[in-house]
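ok so I'm stuck.
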Amino acid sequence: MSDRTIRILAALGGAVLVLLVIGWLDSAVVAGIDRTAGANFDPMPAAVASSLGDLAIAAGALSIVLLARRAVDAWVGIAYAIGGAFLAFLFPVTWFLTAANGNSPALLTGPIADLLDQIWTNTEQGPLNSVPILGAVMFLVGLYTIGAVIRIRRASAPPVTVSPLEAQPSSR
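replied:
not stuck anymore, here's the structure
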């Protein structure tokens, strides 16, 4: 396997791993500490868990940025942009497409609506909102990576040669 392939797989797999770990910390650990703190009427553990969770989200965001920066590949940028947009906008998309509004029925029903609802329920229910935040980071990093790849390709393209007659200004 080439070094480039390893960097691409590390960027894609690392982003998934970061999302899974930070999402679990948010929806299971911090949420559990919040529930316990509410039952005991002691806000200190919840405050510390929230602050440490914020640090974990920041570390996850930096990890995603560094993984994409190391890969600098168009496919990584596209995957990050699509996956990040999906995670960042999952809540409004789920409510817009799967909920009935007034007298109008839901736009999506059946297995697709159930899948969107399950993804939203299982990933975005933490008190820190970590998965949508990391999704927004992935989206922006994906757009930046696509732009960087385009800039690199333009810079490495051979220069356009101009004949001496074309280079001289006209004397009109």
